Amino acid sequence: MQGQGYILHYAPDNASLIVRLALLELGLPFQTRLVDRSMRAQDSAAYRALAPTGLIPALDMGDQVMFETGAILLALADRAPQGGPAKLFPATDAPLRGDALKWLFFIATTLHADCRLHFYPETYAGQTPAPPAFTAATRARLLVHVALIEGAARTQPDLFWTNGSHDCPSLLTLYTLTITRWLRLYPEAQDPWLNLADYPCLYALAGKLDTRESALQAARDEGLGPTPFSAPVFPNPPEGSPL
Known about the structure:
By secondary structure, the protein is α+β, with helices and mostly antiparallel strands. It has helices at 16-26, 45-50, 69-79, 97-119, 121-125, 132-155, 171-183, 200-210, 213-222; strands at 6-10, 30-34, 58-60, 65-67, 161-163, 167-169. The longest helix has 24 residues, at 132-155.
């Protein structure tokens, strides 16, 4: 638990990790409620009342319950006081707002969506095991997506790490690096196919994020190991299951 405030419905090393990192970076008080995937709690009537899609996370913000990772992140960033401990996304009137929105939506609706095809290929291919061509095509698309984000991080670094009045990662970095973590771990026992060192800007950001107190705290809370983003290992969470 992180005190009173927001309530994060989470499972370890799921998309809720991205929201946990944002809450920690913003210094917002929150509690956690485990969605026990080993018991398929995400399909329960109680959880579906919060998130009709059955996807994790859901965030109770007091006046409303949000689902969809990108929407939660944007709502949090826009609610954070300007003078708070971090500012994770450009304000509505900031020059970089449009570019940041484009990349946030790309990560949420394209990169993250293709991750689901990679993690659950049989579901989307319609047969078990999934055809090798399906897996290969999904991986190829994911590599293109990561390369595009690498290019954005190289040409517009302020979108990914704020070095002005706040020295902190942006929502784009929290979201992207959590996904690249998963791509190197899941499905379990897959052959290594994504090397983050091939993307030097993202790799450098992963090393910086590993040293942030937000990442250190999230790693303790979810059993992610000492270098969760630059050199991830399979988690050993104190409660719940990532799968």
